[in-house]
Structures are given as structure tokens and as C-alpha cells.
Amino acid sequence: MPFKLLSFTLLTALLYPLATQANTVITDEEQTDLAVTLYTQNLGLIQDSRSIPPLKKDETIVIRDISKLMQTETLQIRNAGAIKEQTLNTASLNYYALLERHIGENIILARSQTNGQEIQQTVQLLNVEGSTALVENNGRIESIPLSSEWRIIFPTSPADLLLKPSLTFRSEGTHTAGTAQFSYLTHGLSWQMDYVMTLNEDSSELRLEGLASLMNDTGTPLKNARIRLLAGDVYQDSSPRHRAKTVMMAQSMAEDSSSPMPEALNDYQLYTLGERVTLQHQQRTQVPLMQADKVGIKALQRYQFYMSNGVDNQTHILKPESFIRFTNNQQHGLGTPLPAGQVRFFSPDNTGELHYIGSSHINQTAKDEHVELAMGKAFDVTISRKQTDFQTAFDGTVTAYEVRIRNSALSSRDIEVTSLFSQPWKLISSTSKPVEQNAGMAKWKIAVQGNSEALLTMRVRLTKPQ
Q1: Kind and range of the H or E element at 95?
Q2: How far apart, in whole angstroms, are the C-alpha atoms of residue 371 and residue 357?
Q3: SS3 of 4, please?
């Protein structure tokens, strides 16, 4: 009897720690700081600081509310003891995962009858392919359509299927409570720039508003985060070493919360938002990034054509392309790097009400660079072009054209006419001197008064290539 009591006591002592031992779970409720750097190419850097209790050696620590798209090879865990093992758990609890886990196991099929009663049958799940399941029912193999007619009852919930992804790790432990940092790159984060440009009545100035659109598809909300936006095309090497360097580079910048906006980072521009932002999962959040009230612009219209060495009997009538041009400097009301993005134009009518008049795309634009944005086809200006002469010469051809520009608007218009050449050329005569020319083109600038027309004629010798 004493021996049995001793055996039972010893067995209880051995099993009790195993039975009562529970993993330490750290959620975003313990978060003390969160910094997120978003890139424009489905990439982000997360730096997550959380309070942790003293950790026992080899204790399994569960970190919840993390990105399901984490690049685990870039994960760095600090102030949590020397890390011995880290695992990203992404197997989520869903219908098809449950089917997969129960292959070879018993499940319960349930279906309602016409009288409202439900019948249930226990079968063994053999396989699942597409929308059909194979089951063994009383020694026979049957196919069951996975449709709304059938309700499947799963008798067990596999422990490895989670409601949300989590990170687990084991370390050498810590003696005191503290704050651990988790830094990693992740897919599912991106941002893009959206511009609204509102022109004034005579298209001499515009108001620029730049909105940053932030997208979060990481599977978890990012609460009250310090947000940084990196403008530029970051090269993503598949090498884990290169990814780790990217983490260290971006992390060193994000740790300095007093950085100005924008800030040069190698060959990129880093923008820091002034206030913290919460990015919910599968949500698009827009925040103001820049604004300029009076940007000096030049509104122009452009027409260009190829001058060939053949006979052209047609009269070409078309509309020129409207565009605006400005320089990204302080003299024109800007002078800050402009990230690439979509541009939408608005213009007021006679009553001051704004109307959408087109869209364009702006490339990455550094300070002091020139910007040219197309705005669509002109309505009030019509161009008519025809060939007026064609002669052959010993070394090529001589051709002449006239370009007639009709302006039906009340105000004047500036038109750029460009002739493109695919062979050596020489301008014999022209009613207006070109403002620019090179080996492949000649450009004229024609001012056309309101409700009038202008005529540009030119004669060119096209030489046969040697």
C-alpha cells in the first residue's frame, strides 16, 4: 500500500508540470510601439515592440497578431533571450483545411429532408477532389457533392489549424520582464501616390494635392503605427542575406522619429507621416502627403507627324494633344521630390464649379526636374495637314507641307508642331523658324489668336542614307 501511494504521488508529480504548463501568449494588447515602412512593390517593413514577462529557458512563446505573409528569413527578435528556434504558423482553420485533415477519419454527413427533419450518417472520408468527396459508407465507396445540400460535421478540431497566424519561438530565456522587438519584411503592404491637380481659369497655375494610398493585406490590423513611405523601385533580391540588409537599412532610418519629410535614403526618398495611423486588414487608407497652392504651369498643345519620302495625297484633319508643363522647383511653387503616381485634373467653369477633365501619370520626379503631363485631345483647336509638293532629286527627294491650325476658342493657344524624320534632312524654307531641331526632328512653336487660324509651311530635302 505505501508503495502504491508513493508510485501514485511520484506519477502525479511527474505529470502535473506537463499538464499545467501553458504557452506564454503575447498579443497586440502588449504592443508598446509599432513602426511600419511601406514600399510601392507589395513590400513592407514591420518593427513591433511588445512587453514580455520573464521567459523560462526553452519555453514556447506565442506571438499573435502578426503578418501572415512574413518573410521569415528576415525576422529578427531582440531582447527575448538568445533565440534557439522560431516558427511562423499560417495553417488557418477553414473548410477545405478541415476536409484535408480528416482524410482517413470519420465525419458526419447531415442533410435536411422535405419534412424539415435532419438525417445524419457517419462515414469515412477517403479523398477530396474539386467539389466532390469520396467516402466509405457501410463498405461501399460513394461520391458526395460538396454543395449546399450537405452539411459536414467534423468531430474534431485539429490543433495545428489556427484562427489567425502566429509566431512561436524558444530562447535561452530572460530573468526579468522587458520589451522585445520583432522586425521583419512582409508582403501584403504597399502604397501609391494619387495627385489631384486643379487648374485655374486661364491654366496658368494649379493647386496640387498629393494623397498617399496605404494598402494592408497582411491578415492583421496594424494599430496606431508610425508610418514611413519609401518612394522608388527597390530591387528585391531573392537572397536572404540581401533581404536582411534591407531590413537593417530601413530599420536604422525608422528608429529616428525626428526625420524630416522627405528624406534622402540612398537613391530613394523616405516620407514620414506626422501622425500615427491604424491600417485595418483589406482596407485602403488615404492620408495627405503634400500640398502646393500655386504651381506655375504652361499649358500647351502638341501635334507631331512623320515626314516621309513618298507621295501623300490625303488631307489629315485631327486634334492636337493638350498637356501642361512645369519645373519642380521653388520658383514654380514646388521644389520637393514627387513620387510616381496617378494624376487627375480638374478645371473650373464660369461659375467656379469644378469638373473632371482627364488623368495622366507622373514618373518619379526629383527636385528641379521638368514635368510634362498629357491631358487628352484639344476640343477648340483643329489641325489640317497636307503635302503641297513632291519632287525627286539625284540624292533623294524634296517635299513640302502646309499645316493649318484653326483655333475656335476665344483665348489664344500655343501649339507645338513637330516633324519627325527617319533619314537625313535639311530645311530649305519655312514660314517660321524652328525653336528646336536635331538629326531626327524639327519643332515649331505657333501662337494662334482666339477665333482665328495660322498657317505653317515648310519645304525639306530628304537625302538618301549613305
Answers
A1: helix 95-101
A2: 19
A3: helix
